[in-house]
TrEMBL record:
The lineage of its organism: Eukaryota, Metazoa, Ecdysozoa, Arthropoda, Hexapoda. This is Zinc finger MYM-type protein 1-like. It holds the Pfam family Dimer_Tnp_hAT. Residues 292-469 form the DUF4371 domain. One of its GO terms (molecular function) is protein dimerization activity. It comes from Aphis craccivora. Residues 850-902 form the HAT C-terminal dimerisation domain. SUPFAM superfamilies: Ribonuclease H-like.
Amino acid sequence: MSTNINCLCGKKRLNLNDTNWKRHLTSCSIAKLKKSNVVNDVSSFFTIKRKIYEERDSPKKVTFAIKNEDIPPSSIEENDTEHTQHNYLICQNSNSENIEPEQFVRDLCDNRESSTVSKAIESTNLTGNNYESKFPNDPSKIPDNVSHTLLHYFMEMGPCQPCPFDLLNNIYPKSLDSSGFSRSFHQSYFHKSLSDGKLVKRIWLSYSPILDKIYCTTCKLFGLSKIKKNKFVANGSNDWKNLKRTIEVHESIPEHLQAEISRGLYISNLRLDLTLLRSVNNQVATNREIVLAVIQILIYSARQNIPLRGHDEQITSQNQGNFLELVKLISKYHPSLNNHLDKINNTTKENRLTFLSNRSQNNLLKIIGDMIRTNILDQVKKSQLFAVIIDTTTDISNQEQFSLVLRYVNDDGIIEERLGALETATDGTGMGLFHAFKNITEKYDINWREDLCAQSYDGAASMQGEYSGLRTLIQKENPRALYIWCFAHQLNLVIVDTCDCCEDTRNFFGEVQSLVAYMRARKRTAVFVNCQKEMNPTERVRRLKHFSDTRWTSHGRVIDVIHLKYKELLKTLSVLKESNDRVTASTAKSLIITITTFEFVLSMILLKNIFNITTPLSNYLQSKSLDFIQALKLVDSCKVKLTGMRSEEECDSIINEAKIFARTHKLDDDLPSNFKSVRMRKKKMPGENTQDQIPESPIERYRKNTFYKVLDQIIMSINSRFSDAREILKDLCLLSPERLLKFSKEKKPLPVDCFNYISNWVKGIDTASLRLEYIQFSSSLSELLTGLNLSTKLHGDNNKSNYNELLNANISSDEDDEEINDISFGEGTENVINIETILHVLSNYTLVAAFPNLYQAFKALGTIPASSASAERSFSKVKLIKTRLRSTMQQERLESLMLISCERDISIDTNEVLNIFGKSSDLLKKALLFK
């Protein structure tokens, strides 16, 4: 018990207990007198007068001061700058009531927290609500468990060390300590004085304006669990009386020093977790470089239709397949990939992440294919109008492949035909194909019931059946979906009809087919090649191509080769006639007799001239950007050309050409006698004489039974097979570029109901507005076309030539490339005006908003497909990708390879592919995504 406590009267407590000591203090009259003297003399303490500022309509503020000497010395610590720098403790009260100084001092001396003192002190305290946003690094906001992100955030913000000017009333809040004295924090504690007098900033010390406490943020962020439980660290301290001692004790304990070391390592980026993190990110960067190389190899292989897997992919194999061999080749110039392969080959343990397995290939191919399909579907949805081209075929594994091609007009006014999906169809009937179509559209969210405007298939019953065909089932739910029978298929049927229309042509193609079958043997082909090299060493070696039902130009190509290499063919047959093999010799002898007849030569010249007209048309009808009106125009031009051949002059010209050909190749001097003789039948009717009959010459018979019959048949077939397309054109003829230009010149009034069909066919078109836009646009079309360079290729196709040059183009008969987009049709492209030209004009001059209805009408017209050749081209890719050695390929992998191969002009973001691949599993996420 302390004995150094004295009463104001001078008496010491000594060994008095609490009860007796309180009784003495209460009854001591000397102490009471001295207290009353202090109150009476309180004015002597106010050595400096303070002005009292009274503002209008504001509460009065009373300011008074107390000398430092009246505060007990024990309450002032050494080097306390709060009291050494200020001679007076200023206390302010913002309440409306006046405080008597005597009462304030009395309350202080009696150590009583009266309501008056509480109000005076609380007026200086600041509420935390004002500092939530001003001090985001307030130490009271630091949670117990700090994540790496939060740790980085608080370290970037630094310690919270506000100066008084950052606080309310420009002072730190004051509070009463246990002795009854008003104390507060001071900013001088943010610095530490060293032995040499130098001031060093305490980085670890933070002041919380919200709670009016100080914290050690270093221990809160970097300390161990033991120091984090310390009251000074966890709850903070506002014991301003013992503040100096608290700070000095805390900054000297070992736990705090260890936390300071951790903080220093963190700032210097030398801490262990950051080093590990940098190491992990370096490995992630290396893995990403490896996978990016793998993605590029996959894209290259898919676009070139190269098989990926090998028969034996083990390390000891001499040929691990195209994919792994390409990886080994690229690794010679790719250090990261080379190190990765060395690590795989030199380790005895199984590596979970090689990025080269078939599973990784399938996942990457699927991601790339989905990205391409997403790009296509986004453009289709933006267009809000599309057509479908559907066809089926049987692959090498006897599975029915269902190909869906989407035709639409993109934002630049360019007509596109893109592969949408390749699925396996288990049912080849019309209903089965319809279910496959619905499954694909539902899977990829394609609104075919509203946005589908046309459909194009071949002539199969399951496709165009009137009652249960695919087109009928689609039209039941979407009547606006026009059906277009593929123009190229129809033209091929016209050729087939022509081949079998008369005896001479039927026999001719039979003889040619026998010749082709005979010459396809290996030894006979070698003899034919040697004969060509001997007779014409500078010319290109040709071969007889096989007749094909799907390759529509194969008939004309075979005839061209026979016509061009006729001498070499005769010499080849002469050599084979001397063969020791009796079948070879006898067949060669009979074929020589067959092809040297005048009937064979004449039929060859006739059909060659016909195919010179139809073959370029067949190629052109397979173009992706060909519009419906232009296709019909080309068909009509072909019919006009064939009709012009049906004349006596043209027949004589063909006969004379055949005679010249026969003389050139020294077949016979008396050419007309080479016709097969036919015995004349003499009439024996009563009253008739045999002399009245005029004998018919072989040439006249050929003219009547072959020449006219063939041309009549082909013209009639064109009229009948394209009649349905002409019915559709009647309702859309006003949108043809020729009618548009003609209307601008003639200025005739439009019929009242001219656009009713279009408004019913395409949703969202206003008939009245379309009439006004049509009239205004037609009047300015010539000026717009003058300022537009039509000779520039709109999107890379060489199909912008006029039809006359197309017919006169000398297309080589042995072209191996079946894609007609690679065929050049000559110059003169500046004269072409088609639907795509109109769309290009509207887009190029930014007139879409000015002519919305007209643009929508032309876009719908450009969306109508003229043929289903794009689906046929996709099947050509199927045969290249799914071969006999790859017959077990999964459908998902096949579809991904098809999309990459067919749509090779669509750019692929390899980094996006890598990110999606990295998110597919936790293991890949750890290896490929940065932390």
